[in-house]
Description:
The complex is a heterodimer. In chain A, a hairpin with a 5-residue loop joins strand 6 and strand 7. Chain A is built from six helices and seven strands. Chain A has a five-stranded mixed beta sheet. Chain A has a two-stranded antiparallel sheet with strand order 1-2. Chain A has helices at residues 2-36, 90-105, 120-130, 141-146, 173-185, 190-197; strands spanning 58-61, 67-70, 79-84, 110-116, 137-139, 154-158, 164-169. Chain B contains six helices and no strands. The longest helix of chain B is centred in the C-terminal third of the chain and has 26 residues, at 148-173. Chain B starts with 5 loop residues before the first helix and ends in a 10-residue tail after the last helix. In chain B, 38% of the residues are buried. Classes of the chains: A alpha/beta, B mainly alpha. Chains A and B meet through helix 1 and helix 5 of A and helix 6 of B.
Amino acid sequence: MTAGLTASVVVLWIAVVVLAVVVVALARQVGVLHERVAPAGALLMAGGARIGEKAPELLLKDIRGQDVRIGGQRNDRRHTLLFFLAPSCPVCKTLLPTLRSARESEADWLDIVLASDGETQEQLHFIEREGLDVFPYVISQSLGVSYRVGKLPYAYLVDDQGMLRTGGLVNSREHLESLFNAKELEVGSVQEYLRREQPSEKHVA
Amino acid sequence: MPELDPLYWHVVRYLVATVFAVACAHKLSSISAFEAVVKDYELLPPTMAPLAARLIILFEISVVTGLASGLWLPWAATLAMLLLALYGAGIGINLARGRRDIDCGCFGPAGGAKKGNTLSGWLLLRNLSLIALTTLLFVSVADRSLTWLDLLTIAAATGAGFAAWSAADQLMANPSRLQRPSP
């Protein structure tokens, strides 16, 4: 019995040490991946509204009939994230939790406006189903046309001066967050960032 | 008062010694980097940083030799706790100042001479847990002779404990490795 217990303790210790080493190796691998991941960015599509220029200014009504002003100078120094989505777009749905958390985490400087077009009834169902009533929700074809949105989900960041700071096709949480990074770093798009970085590229192998 | 089995005592002793030894070795391998870290904490006049850095390294060497040899063990354990409390205070003060982005200078297994961890509340928790662990060295220990199985347990538990420490260190350092585009 004692011999058996002894052997089992020895075997268990070997297993614990091996597993501990594996955990360290995995944590290091995660670290390497962190280093290799280039900052994901929203892709600016050709034909979209011009970044760095004045954003198209529109006064619209949201689905509840409240006024929503897009673009133009704002005195409260707040930025607006204009997020184009549609009930029929599955990728848009995956980004809704990120939008909700961004609404809280970026609350001190950012308003989020959801924009869509199509049948109102369908949109209302969508808002109810996804719990989007905390956002201003604008249904307007002219908005999508004036910002030249061709693909969804698309987002623009309009600053307090009414300028288009950044924007692009956002397919993931990282893309959406990159818009906020882009604002902090004053980079218009992932293309611009990569162009800037190229001379001093420093990937650690 | 119940006495602590010597097994626990030895594991704690060697684990704390290993943690300090690795941190100290990293600091020794790049003293200038460590000086910069001390300066960056902005707790001392910048001219004092080189002296403070060397003193800290000296203290850490004393901790390691004291714990490993067992000669001045209570002193070494006390010094270890004081150092950890000092680091904790430095981190706490800078967190309170809102300076999260400075290098913590922990020189842990993940950081090395490279820029490692930035400051976070996790580091405080880490230091507190190590201080709590070190207090075990002041508990009276039962008198029993160690068998080969005890020695294996001490070695393996120390190794596994240090590996867990390294993994935690690495995981804390990982977020700051994400390529934050530099403005």
